[in-house]
Backbone:
């Protein structure tokens, strides 16, 4: 009987061997993947086992941590003035994960990032608890407050950039939400979270409108069209008469007219006058004359059609469409399929203000280890040059006319050169929904150009004319610019 | 005592008793769980747990008494089995106690387990003391058949727990899992029956399509018993145990008849059985599904299977440390029984888990060695049956929990919480020890006989 016994012994050996191979597979080969699987609760337990690092604005933390006594998670995120800062911070919730800066810099904030290895090792030897590092933002608390208060109860967004560096100074979105309300994982947190979802709140408070919502940019896009005209040599002098008929018929259509808002002097108007009065006919024709390719190329230099604008929070892609002639003419005045995020329009204003050089927008200046060592420092980067310095001067000069004596007078700041452009974007089928009121601008002092800003307000009332942008959005832009300028002094 | 002349049987050439080896290893087998106990206490609340003295003394006493009894009543028994069983049982107690520290996992079970372990060791001692020769069991071939059947049928009359009807509840005493005992008793029946019938089964057979099919009257009874037990088990939805019995049956038949065709036959039957059961039993389908998609979410949440996989993965190579894992996330009562390996994997890591699997491997190997060494066919069959069953049980449980095969729900011998399991496995080890004692005992010195003289005179 010994021969089969030996074979059975081998068989049993193989069974044990199979088990050994299997546990090696699970624990060694797949180990890390299983360990870091997002559904593995240990990941979250680990994340909330120590106080999270903070997000810093102007040297002060806008976030915090508090201990909880319920369940697996020891620490819970808190936010100071959460509603105002939510578009910047995003949220970190025990039950609903995290997003935006909280998510992107999770490694630093929770202290697990490899770049914190040294600090962690020291903690291990000194017996200290693992701590999270901090994220230092570029935001300007005063500008943010001005933007958030300015929006008030209206639905809209503000993005402000320092044109010289690309540093984001304000990023407001209303209606907003307080990430503190669902930072934990109780039923109350779940209720708060669910109440903020689109299906229970059609106003979408959790939508970051400054970065993640695209709108038709309306007349503010005429700045891009004017830039395209100058860059492509269609016109050289912003004060010379253009070859623009009134009424103007959209090309390739059987007499479909492109209308102006009201009875304004647009026939053969110079670029300056056309921008001052916001002439659809003039800019529609420029767009048509340049053609879709050239218009698109210029818009792309300003950052359109780029799906990878990371601040590091990714901004939605703004679109300048590939389209036929009549649609392209409409796109040239910021209508048709033309879509832009508020950040994108702030980038347009900032490129013009910065002598035609577009800086890459960013909002994280430094990542700091718990021991205050700087782990990563952002250096401003040039993104593109949509305008030559001379043409930038020309566009600046006509944008300044808009504020001085055009549709944007409500953005004037005494003693400061302000350039701007209003916009009212038609919205909805047959233009029946409330229009979007836009304003983009920059402020210049003898010391430099510290701020460019874009404001959008989603149809807060029924104003349809181009003044809407000037009336609703420009005062907010003014407050933001003033806040930044005061900080400069 | 030495008998240097006998070279025909394994392990009898002046076999040293190895009792001192056993004693030395028992010291380790007691010390390791004691250290583990202290470790859990330090990790959980920074102090040496209060029960550590009692636990060390208790485990030491159990091991010591067992050792003395083995020394007295089975002096030539295998020296490894008792230390391995003690170590596994001791570690099992630590893991259960460690899981008792998690309030979400229900009431403490370690004290009961300690009681059952004590009973198990007592049972072990009783077997060693009263079962002087394992061949006595041969007399009870048919009685054990009846007992096994009764044990298997009994749970049908009691309410099921967690979907499986594998328990009988005795008022005031708690519940009992007769399948664990049936495992041993049916091995006794198979061994006794096959020993008598093996020649008939092996030789008086007809060749049919390359397979040797024995005559119905030889195979009949055993086939009937086997089929009955399988059916009962299917009705009790205890698939792990039916798989175990089936494997036991095939292995013993193969060893008894030395015919490879039985393996083929067994594989065909098991494949057919598996398909048949899988088509009828919905909960088998669920388990196969969970096995193929271990990380799938159900109802938006993570399944038990996934939780076990996460436990293993998070343990990594060295583990999180005793008491510092999160295997409590596997909810319910299973973490202390079926899923206890997940806690092992998470807290002592791949290294610890492999060590424990190797301990099982070693125990199985010692059992098979006993079968090889045994001089009587009954002893051979019984010990291969018991070791084979043990090996299959380890494979089915560990393979199920780690996702190698679909989960079938059985207890990890010695390690998992469960009174019947602990007692039955101690009994199993006791029987193996008894057989190995007989096998390794030096052959009695030959009677002085003129035939055995150094120089023989050829008589006319």
Residues:
């Amino acid at each position: 009987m010994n021969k089969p016994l030996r074979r059975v012994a081998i068989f049993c050996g193989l069974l044990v061997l199979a088990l050994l191979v299997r546990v090696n597979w699970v624990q060694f080969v797949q180990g890390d993947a299983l360990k870091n699987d997002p559904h593995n609760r240990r990941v979250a337990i680990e994340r909330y086992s120590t106080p999270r690092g903070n997000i810093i604005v102007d040297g002060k933390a806008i976030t915090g941590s508090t201990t909880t006594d319920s369940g697996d998670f020891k620490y819970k995120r808190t936010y100071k003035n959460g509603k105002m800062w939510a578009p910047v911070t995003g949220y970190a919730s025990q039950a609903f994960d995290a997003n935006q800066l909280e998510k992107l810099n999770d490694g630093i904030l929770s202290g697990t990032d490899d770049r914190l290895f040294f600090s962690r090792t020291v903690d291990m030897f000194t017996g200290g608890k693992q701590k999270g590092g901090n994220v230092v933002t570029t935001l300007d608390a005063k500008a943010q407050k001005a933007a958030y208060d300015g929006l008030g109860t209206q639905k809209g967004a503000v993005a402000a950039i320092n044109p010289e560096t690309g540093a984001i100074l304000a990023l407001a979105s209303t209606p907003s939400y307080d990430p503190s309300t669902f930072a934990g994982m109780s039923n109350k947190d779940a209720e708060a979270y669910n109440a903020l979802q689109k299906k229970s709140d059609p106003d979408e408070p959790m939508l970051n409108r400054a970065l993640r919502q695209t709108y038709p940019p309306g007349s503010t896009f005429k700045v891009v069209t004017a830039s395209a005209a100058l860059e492509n040599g269609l016109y050289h002098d912003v004060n010379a008469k253009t070859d623009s008929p009134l009424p103007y018929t959209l090309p390739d259509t059987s007499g479909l007219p492109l209308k102006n808002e009201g009875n304004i002097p647009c026939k053969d108007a110079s670029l300056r006058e056309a921008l001052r009065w916001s002439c659809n006919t003039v800019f529609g024709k420029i767009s048509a004359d340049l053609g879709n390719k050239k218009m698109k190329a210029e818009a792309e230099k300003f950052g359109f059609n780029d799906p990878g604008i990371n601040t590091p929070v990714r901004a939605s892609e703004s679109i300048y469409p590939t389209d036929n002639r009549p649609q392209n003419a409409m796109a040239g005045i910021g209508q048709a399929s033309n879509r832009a995020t508020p950040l994108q329009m702030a980038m347009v204003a900032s490129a013009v203000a910065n002598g035609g050089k577009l800086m890459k927008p960013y909002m994280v200046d430094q990542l700091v280890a718990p021991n205050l060592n700087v782990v990563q420092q952002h250096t401003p980067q040039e993104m593109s040059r949509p305008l030559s310095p001379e043409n930038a001067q020309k566009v600046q000069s006509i944008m300044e006319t808009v504020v001085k004596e055009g549709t944007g007078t409500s953005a004037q700041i005494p003693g400061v050169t302000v350039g701007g452009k209003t916009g009212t974007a038609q919205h909805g089928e047959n233009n029946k929904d409330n229009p979007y009121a836009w304003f983009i601008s920059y402020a210049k002092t003898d010391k430099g150009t510290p701020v460019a800003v874009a404001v959008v307000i989603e149809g807060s009332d029924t104003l349809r004319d181009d003044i809407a942008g000037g009336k609703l959005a420009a005062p907010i832009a003014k407050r933001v610019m003033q806040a930044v300028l005061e900080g400069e002094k | 005592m030495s008998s240097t002349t006998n070279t025909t049987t394994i392990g009898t050439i002046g076999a040293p008793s190895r009792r001192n080896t056993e004693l030395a290893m028992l010291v380790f087998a007691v010390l390791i769980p004691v250290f583990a106990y202290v470790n859990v206490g330090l990790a959980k609340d920074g102090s040496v747990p209060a029960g550590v003295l009692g636990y060390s003394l208790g485990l030491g006493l159990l091991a010591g008494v067992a050792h003395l009894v083995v020394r007295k009543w089975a002096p030539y028994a295998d020296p490894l089995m008792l230390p391995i069983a003690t170590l596994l049982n001791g570690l099992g107690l630590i893991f259960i106690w460690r899981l008792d520290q998690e309030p979400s996992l229900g009431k403490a079970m370690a004290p009961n387990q300690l009681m059952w372990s004590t009973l198990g060791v007592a049972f072990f001692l009783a077997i060693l003391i009263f079962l002087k020769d394992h061949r006595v069991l041969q007399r009870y071939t048919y009685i054990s058949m009846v007992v096994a059947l009764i044990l298997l049928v009994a749970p049908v009359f009691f309410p099921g727990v967690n979907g499986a009807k594998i328990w009988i509840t005795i008022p005031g005493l708690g519940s009992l899992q007769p399948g664990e005992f049936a495992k041993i008793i049916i091995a006794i029946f198979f061994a006794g029956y096959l020993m008598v019938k093996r020649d008939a089964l092996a030789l008086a057979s007809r060749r049919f399509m390359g397979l040797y099919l024995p005559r119905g009257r030889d195979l009949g009874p055993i086939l009937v018993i086997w089929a009955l037990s399988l059916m009962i088990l299917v009705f009790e939805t205890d698939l792990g145990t039916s798989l175990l019995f089936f494997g036991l049956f095939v292995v013993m038949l193969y060893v008894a008849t030395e015919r490879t065709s039985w393996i083929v036959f067994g594989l065909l039957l098991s494949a057919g059985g598996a398909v048949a059961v899988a088509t009828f039993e919905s909960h088998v389908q669920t388990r196969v599904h969970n096995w193929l998609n271990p990380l799938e979410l159900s109802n938006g949440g993570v399944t038990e299977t996934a939780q076990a996989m996460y436990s293993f993965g998070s343990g990594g190579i060295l583990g999180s440390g005793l008491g510092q894992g999160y295997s409590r996330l596997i909810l319910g009562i299973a973490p202390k029984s079926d899923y206890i390996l997940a806690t092992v994997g998470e807290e002592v890591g791949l290294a610890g888990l492999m060590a424990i699997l190797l301990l099982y491997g070693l125990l199985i190997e010692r059992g098979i060695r006993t079968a090889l060494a045994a001089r009587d066919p009954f002893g051979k069959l019984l010990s291969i049956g018991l070791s084979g069953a043990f090996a299959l049980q380890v494979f089915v449980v560990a393979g199920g929990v780690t996702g190698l095969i679909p989960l079938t729900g059985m207890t990890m011998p010695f390690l998992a919480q469960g009174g019947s399991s602990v007692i039955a496995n101690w009994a199993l080890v006791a029987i193996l020890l008894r057989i190995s004692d007989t096998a390794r005992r030096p052959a009695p010195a030959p009677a002085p006989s003129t035939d055995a003289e150094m120089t023989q005179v050829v008589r006319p």
